[in-house]
Design goal:
Elements: H1 2-18, H2 22-33, H3 38-44, H4 53-90, H5 109-123, E1 127-128, E2 134-136, H6 137-140, H7 152-155, E3 165-167, H8 173-182, E4 188-197, E5 209-220, H9 224-239, E6 245-252, E7 255-264, E8 281-290, H10 292-297, E9 305-313, H11 314-322, H12 329-332, H13 335-338
Parallel strand pairs: 1-4
Antiparallel strand pairs: 2-3, 4-5, 5-9, 6-7, 7-8, 8-9
Helix pairs in contact: 1-4, 2-4, 5-11
Bound molecules: 3,4-dihydroxyphenylalanine.
3,4-dihydroxyphenylalanine binds next to strand 8 and strand 9.
Length: 345
């Protein structure tokens, strides 16, 4: 019996050494240490032994059992450690590898300029308004003091949809819509960015679709000097602190007096170059004091209230700011063009 136990122990130890996974280990345990295992069956056979031998063999069986149990625990710990090591190895992350670049879009240069203009005017207390691109003749022309047959209508070749409905030729109708919505109350301080449409033949400086930003301020005692101050502040924030502006007399039916506004040429800082046609100045917008008739038509008492308005072309500003020499680049969506604006401010 002693030999039988010894053999069993050796056999169990040999097989334990061969176990390579937890399931094999479990099988091993059932086979040698389980209730129906080999040790147990030896223990059962002890009944046939003489009473003197029993404690001896009992002791031996217990020794073998505890040796096997101990070996089992060690093996189990070893397998667990190995499994963990393998897992760590397989899931290792090399933190020194460069990251994979995720392609990110960029803000379109026109939207970028619009946002910049909005930020500047919001900082000056303006709100951003919107209006429809499909407009009525009334808002686009009549309410802006441009009656039918007025020669100023020729200045703006219009896409008519019907006799009364058209694609707006400028963002100025939003002035009237805003004034009507405010119902005679002040202050009115808005800018309105948006698309406008004209029957132009497209070339490097003309497009049948382009973008304007309109501005309007109406309150008591608004003067031309307010207009000048706002536009100077705008020019300096947009193009740099050294900027000067210059107002030249002009004509728009919806303003009186009317002016065209130049800023210092950003290419030559005013010295004169090809871009500013050697004048040192670049025209960027039209402006003026809101015509009393426009105020009256929109329900404002022009004796009490005055205002100024301005309108600028966004493409023109973007072209000057970024040195773009063809307006069509803004619309063809060539990624090689657009990508260049990824890191510019
Ligand atoms: N609407 C004019 C245009 O499209 C630009 C303009 C000029 C707007 C003078 C104004 C303004 O608000 O006061 O050419």
């Amino acid at each position: 019996m002693k030999e039988q136990l010894q053999k069993l122990r050796e056999q169990a130890m040999d097989e334990l050494a061969k176990c390579e996974a937890q399931n094999e280990l479990t099988e091993w345990k059932v086979q040698y240490l389980g209730k129906k295992g080999e040790l147990t069956s030896i223990l059962r056979g002890m009944g046939q032994l003489s009473p003197e031998k029993r404690p001896l063999v009992g002791q031996l069986v217990n020794d073998v059992r505890s040796a096997l149990e101990h070996a089992y625990e060690q093996k189990e710990a070893e397998l667990k450690r190995k499994a963990l090591e393998e897992k760590l190895k397989a899931e290792a992350i090399d933190v020194t590898l460069p990251g994979r670049m995720v392609p990110v879009g960029v803000v379109h240069p026109l939207n970028r300029v619009i946002r910049e203009i909005e930020d500047i005017f919001i900082g000056l207390g303006f709100e951003v308004a919107e209006g429809p691109e499909v407009e009525t003749d009334y808002y686009n022309f009549e309410a802006l003091n441009i009656p039918k047959n007025h020669p100023a209508r020729d200045m703006q070749d219009t896409f008519y949809l019907t006799e009364e409905i058209l694609m707006r030729t400028h963002t100025s109708p939003v002035q009237v819509r805003t004034l009507e919505a405010k119902k005679g109350t002040v202050p009115v301080r808005i800018i309105c960015p948006g698309r406008v449409y004209r029957r132009d033949d497209d070339d490097a400086t003309h497009s049948h679709l382009f973008t304007q930003v309109e501005g309007l301020v109406v309150d008591r005692q608004i003067r031309m000097s307010d207009l000048k101050g706002i536009l100077l502040t705008f020019a300096r924030q947009m193009f740099g602190p050294e900027q000067q502006i210059r107002l030249r007399p002009s004509y728009f039916p919806f303003t009186e007096p009317s002016t065209e506004v130049d800023v210092t040429c950003m290419a030559c800082r005013g010295d004169g170059c090809r871009i500013c046609k050697h004048t040192g100045w670049i025209e960027i917008l039209g402006a003026g004091m809101v015509h009393p008739r426009v105020l009256e038509m929109a329900g404002y008492d022009s004796e009490t209230y005055t205002g100024f308005a301005f309108g600028m072309g966004v493409e023109r500003i973007a072209m000057l700011k970024y040195g773009v020499d063809d307006i069509r680049y803004f619309y063809v969506n060539d990624v090689r063009f657009l990508k260049q604006f990824a890191s510019r401010s």
